[in-house]
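Sanity check. The docking grid for tryptophan depends on where the pocket ends up, so I'm generating a full predicted complex first rather than guessing from homology. Inputs follow.
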Amino acid sequence: MTDEHEITPWDVSDTFQEAQYERVATEFGAKIIDDHLKDEIRDLAGEVHRFIQYGIFFAHRDLDQLLDGYRKGRKFYLYTGRGPSGKMHLGHLIPFMFTKWLQERFDVDLIIQITDDEKYIFRDTSQEELEKYTRSNILDILSLGFKPEKTHILVDSKNSGLLYNYGIKVAKHITASTVKSVFGLKDSDNIGKFFFTSIQSVPAFIVSAITGHNVPCLIPYAIDQDPHFKISRDILPKLGYEKPASIISKFIPSLKGSGKMSSSDESSGIYLDDDSKTIKRKLMKYAFSGGRDTMEEQRRLGANPDVDFAFNTYRMLEPDMAKASKIYEEYRSGQILSGEMKMIAYEKITGFFETLNSRRDTVMKNMDDYMFNPDRFR
Ligand code: TRP
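Predicted complex below; grid placement will be based on this.
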């Protein structure tokens, strides 16, 4: 299978180009979110989230069908996740911000799988270290303000019995050659990697399995996760469950401009625990700018906001799209200078972080309320 694809979604890396997203997604079998689907979303959700408008969430699998069902009264649930590997940065929160919007607009349950086993298998990180990040990552995610009654954090290591028993049902239908071609694994890779995708499939049918009737599932994820769910969609019908639907995002470019933000390079992103001084320094020192070299040139020729980290980050955090497009114009036409753009982004980011921080104590106190418990679905 890999032979037919020059690049698979799994290979999305630092060198991945904006122009390749649509091709890779559609070649792999996803569809681009078109105007018709946007109208459908607007109709049901009351608005089209800016991440869709800006093309960050740009593709889907069977979202049209899922919404059709919803319109007829079939509630779905949401499933997304995070594999702790280090501290979280702004880019990591994007899918969760979007998922929160979906949860609120459609008033549905949400399962967040925390795959604290994943990076142990796939990377060279100790279990002790991962445990530390697991807790802080969960806190970071929950500080976005998810509703406790409808949010279910499913930590792999804490729910291993449940996940294993359902996971083997999936595993039984997946061959080594499928996993090899979809994820590019080799015979020399450890067998944990071969099995892992079975575990990531489970939350896509767990509500149906617990309740005994089929509940549709919608999974928001970044494009590198698509191979997992392409496999889930093949297997789940064989187990009597529906194929999960999905909504797929691009990666947020790193501070330095190209590729995704990486957890291993401090200067590649703005971390959730960066203080305002650090944020300002990182923006001024590293942020890839679409501005010109000199002030005179910038005034005369204007900037290219599309590639500008500060502008894009500001736009992501600005719910008022009219306001953001005004800034876009002013920056593009040279009225706003790069340094000023960075300060606009700075204000937005620090304001956002303050909101997150203000929720942390409450979230920490009530952490247990969010934890996955099958009885909450019965
Ligand atoms: N594999 C994902 C990661 O590396 C974590 C994850 C598990 C996930 N289940 C998911 C992501 C569902 C999106 C949707 O972070």
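Relevant for the grid: Residues 229 and 328 are 36 Å apart (CA to CA).
Also worth noting: The radius of gyration is 21 Å.
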